[in-house]
Write a structure and sequence with these properties.
Layout lengths: L2 H46 L5 H5 L12 H32 L4 H13 L4 H15 L6 H25 L3 H9 L4 H30 L2 H5 L20 H9 L4 H35 L3
């Protein structure tokens, strides 16, 4: 065996060892993360599952733990999340279409790209301050559901734009050229080829957006969402609270029963989140099957 062959075998063994160690490290990290999540879920289920009943779901908050429920917080969460999706989804997709299909590749667009990416990492409390200044005070919307939904729209819009842009970018350019070669305009190509092909991945962005919107608390506390609401909102201009704020309020109380109430509310919040994600996954799979080229 030559010297070069021996050195090659040593490098090969070293690479195999590094690959083995890396595999074990990421596997261990995955196991630790899943175990931690499992412990947290078990603790929440242990403390709160017996408190989840029809009375808990259909009652308003109360100073007495046995009478307290989450009806107003659940209604507020659905109001804010649905309105946020209605506002952010079309704006995010339209922005992504413009930036990917129409915007020139110049310095200004490059700066916009960088800023959108940076906005996705801005702390959520900053969006709360922005929402307080613009929607609550400048537009005089007050502590309403509409102000909360618009604030959450600012928060999740960068995530939606980035996901939609990646989805549009992944559509093969050959599809566009083939459709335009048949005489279609750019808009017809986008409408009949690009959007249907990108829709499953865009809906994945919708899942991420809803998941973030439903669990955020800081921006809504900043704009003054109420901690105690004894009515269900009937219009976007009504006051509101949401499940994360209700959970925060109960956890801060010293009585042990409120800890169980908070755990029960977390279970309901997880069910709502998983239900909305399931709908989004179903829509994504449906369009994925019907838009294969």
């Amino acid at each position: 065996m030559s010297i070069d062959s021996t050195a090659y075998q040593k490098r090969l063994r070293r690479r195999a060892m590094i690959d083995f160690l890396f595999h074990k490290i990421v596997l261990m990290a995955c196991v630790i993360a899943i175990a931690a999540l499992g412990v947290l879920l078990f603790d929440i289920l242990r403390k709160g599952i017996t408190w989840v009943d029809w009375h808990f779901l259909t009652s308003f908050p109360s100073m007495l733990p046995k009478d307290a429920g989450i009806l107003s917080a659940l209604a507020g969460t659905l109001w804010v999340t649905i309105l946020t999706a209605i506002f952010a989804f079309p704006i995010g997709v339209a922005t992504a279409i413009f930036l990917e299909e129409y915007a020139p590749k110049n310095r200004l667009v490059h700066i916009i790209d960088i800023n959108i990416a940076n906005l996705a990492g801005v702390p959520s409390i900053v969006y709360g301050i922005l929402g307080l200044a613009i929607f609550v005070r400048a537009m005089t919307l007050g502590r309403s559901i509409l102000a909360g939904a618009l604030t959450m729209t600012l928060l999740v819009l960068p995530v939606m734009i980035i996901a939609a842009r990646e989805a549009i970018k992944s559509v093969p350019n050959s599809l566009r050229l083939a459709f335009m070669a048949m005489g279609a305009t750019k808009w017809q190509t986008i409408r009949h080829v690009v959007i249907p092909a990108a829709l499953p991945s865009i809906l994945t962005g919708l899942i991420l957006m809803v998941s973030r919107a439903i669990g955020e608390t800081a921006p809504l506390i900043m704009i003054g969402a109420l901690a105690f609401v004894a009515f269900t909102p009937s219009s976007p201009m009504d006051g509101f609270t949401v499940l994360p704020i209700q959970i925060f309020s109960w956890v801060s109380r010293p009585q042990e029963d409120f800890t169980h109430l908070a755990a029960a509310a977390i279970i309901v919040l997880l069910v709502v989140l998983l239900s909305m994600n399931a709908v989004s996954v179903w829509l994504r799979n449906k369009y994925e099957k019907s838009t294969r080229f």
